[in-house]
Amino acid sequence: MSNEAKKHEGGVSYHIPGSDYFEKRELSRHAGVFSLWALGVGAVISGDFSGWNLGFAVGGWGGMFVATLLITIMYLGLTYSIAEMSPALPHTGGAYSFARTAFGPWGGFVTGLAENIEYVLTPAVVVFFIGTYLTSIFGTPTAFQPLWWIVGYLVFVGLNVRGVALSFQVTVFVTLLALAILVFFFISAAPFMEFSKYAMNIGVGPDGTAVELPDGGGPFLPFGTYGVLAAMPFAVWLFLAIEQLPLAAEESVDPKRDMPKGIMLGMFTLIATGFLILITNPAIPEGAFKLGSSGEPILDGFRAIYGSGAAKLLALAAVAGLVASFHAIIFAFGRQIYSLSRAGYFPHFLSVTHGDHKTPNVALIAGSLLGLGVMLVVWLTQGGQAAGSFIGGVLLNMAVFGAMISYLFQALSFIRLRRRFPDIERPYRSPLGVPGAAATVVIALITIYFQLTDPVYQTGVIGVAIWYALGIIYFGAYGRRTLVYSPEEEFAVKQREGAGSI
């Protein structure tokens, strides 16, 4: 990299790189609309297989249902906003790129760091549930679950390193398989559904915790408004990571045309599967109460329908849903770390790509090691095998906290770009406009507030907040002096110079 640096307002320094800098950081284009749709759905589909159901323990079925409605509104506002911004700013930076143009380098960093927390922790949550399923299917000791996690990371980081074409081929295959398993589950569950008896079998005990009502018929909101708020982080799990698609912009054949279609087709697919699983899974034996502490709700459902023997075979196929998300979000954190490193917000070496495959192999390895490290810390500090699904809930809330901060800044970026940069070419415009983005802001703030005050998962969330603060200190002390004119930065600087502000 050249030693030449150009100073800018706001206390940041830009280094002008030589041609070899970007030659070592090349990506290759491959994805069309179908591949983008599969990447978006695949990244999220694990939310239908595990994690969402933990909301029953804190909100009952009605609390989870209302929470899901609110979170759906938030995601519609978010995805329509992203569908407008991504073809207007078609860079692999995604959320960081949007906020960088809207709010400058500091805005780009705090948004990118929040998204980084989300994408590093989300596959950790998913592989935790993969380990839970595989432990149940193969009868391995619970204490061996970390071995399943390590194997998962080794296999799917390896597939992502092998090339973008292979990554998308695997994503398409496992996403379609996961959707087929869900459709099969919905059809199988239909004859066994007794909604009032099973889905409404949660009441409140004298100590304020959930109790099982053997005959069902419980209240719609057993925990009242508090239950709705408590269930919101788990409702997020039905949609979290659909917003990753802009990270594939520089690997999309025509991002200005294909990105909005891929995002919104994916979102509507997930709305359909999310509400179907919310209605069918708890409405069959064992019911919502037991699902509220289950690490494998689909497997529990198959057991109720087909018995334990056949259920294991079906559940092995059902792991495809978790695998789809694990693989797709590994793709996401690789590109997200790559983009922030290429622009100098993270150390530069993290953005070097594989010489033959043109994939961000260093970023992929670094993100997986960090995610696995967090999992092991939580596993050891929370009691390991004795804590059961509680560990999944801790990791889930940590990922959701990072996501909510990212969503807040992305929605604010949309509003800012609409008002301050109206002349940016926008191949697609959000039909929800500023009101949709404003709804995202409000619901994200409510979720953040509740997570910070929730005594059950508060420790993990505060841990993420501390990590976030340390990242901001790093940028203030060092990172802001190492920025590079990457495509995102060059675009943002020119737009803001044109508007009279860096």
Characterize this entry briefly:
With 502 residues, this protein is mainly alpha-helical. It has helices spanning 19-23, 33-44, 56-88, 95-138, 145-161, 164-189, 195-199, 224-236, 255-280, 288-291, 297-306, 308-342, 361-381, 389-420, 433-453, 458-477, 487-498; strands at 5-8, 12-15, 202-204, 210-212, 483-484.
What does this structure look like?
This protein is mainly alpha-helical. It has one domain (5-382, 389-498): Amino acid/polyamine transporter I. Helix content is 67%, strand content 3%. It has 17 helices and five strands. It has helices at residues 19-23, 33-44, 56-88, 95-138, 145-161, 164-189, 195-199, 224-236, 255-280, 288-291, 297-306, 308-342, 361-381, 389-420, 433-453, 458-477, 487-498, and strands spanning 5-8, 12-15, 202-204, 210-212, 483-484. The strands form two sheets. It has a three-stranded mixed beta sheet with strand order 1-2-5, with no helix packed on it.
